[in-house]
Specification:
Layout (H helix, E strand, L loop, with lengths): L18 H19 L9 E2 L2 E2 L16
Antiparallel strand pairs: 1-2
């Protein structure tokens, strides 16, 4: 019995850019533009001995209330 011969494997042809690649570039440029326009945000919230450093943030006051 003779072994079956397979055709040689050819390297892939030229690649066609995917539309998503262009989209990702547009999204990246939009994010960079927004970062240039927006003022820098505070980096986060910190607590020292159970109290928020820098005073409480009015956006989160409602989270400190408890209802039993």
């Amino acid at each position: 019995m003779e072994p079956t011969r397979m055709p040689p494997v050819r390297p892939p042809g030229p690649t066609i850019p995917h539309p998503r690649d262009r989209f990702d570039g547009r999204v990246l440029r939009a994010l960079q533009a927004r970062r240039r326009l927006d003022p820098p945000r505070p980096s986060g919230r910190a607590w020292i001995n159970g109290r928020e450093a820098g005073g409480p943030d009015s956006r989160y006051v409602h989270l400190g209330q408890t209802y039993d």
